[in-house]
Input
Amino acid sequence: MKTVRRVSLWLPPLIYAGAIFYLSSQSEPLPELTSHVWDKALHAIEYSGLGILIFRALFGERLPLPVVIGLTAAIVSVYGASDEWHQSFVPMRSPDILDWMVDTLGGSAAAVVCALLALRPRTR
Output
C-alpha cells in the first residue's frame, strides 16, 4: 500500500516535469498561445503548477511544513535552471536567466499559497 501511495504522490509531478521537458524540446512550442501571452506569465503559470504538484508530494510525505516550502522552492528552481540549460541545445531557443527567476518565483509562490491553505482551519 505504501508503494501505491508514493506513486500517487510522485507520478503527477514527474509527468508534469516531463511535459515541461517535452515543450522545451520544441523550437516553437504552442505558437498560437505563445504569440498572444507574455512569456513570463506563461513561465509563472507553468512553474506554479509544478510547485503545487511538488508541494503536494512533499506534504504527503508528512515532512514539516517549512521543509516542504523550502524543498518545493529548491526543486522547482533547480528544475527551472536545468530547463533553461536544456533549451540552449534546442534550435531557435536560448536560456534566459529571467525565465529561470520567474520559474523559481512561480513555484515558490505556489508553495506559500499551498502552505497557507494547509494551515487554515477546517470547517465541517
Q: What stands out?
A: Residues 56 and 85 are 26 Å apart (CA to CA). Helices lie at 2-24, 31-34, 39-60, 65-87, 97-119. The chain has a mean pLDDT of 93.
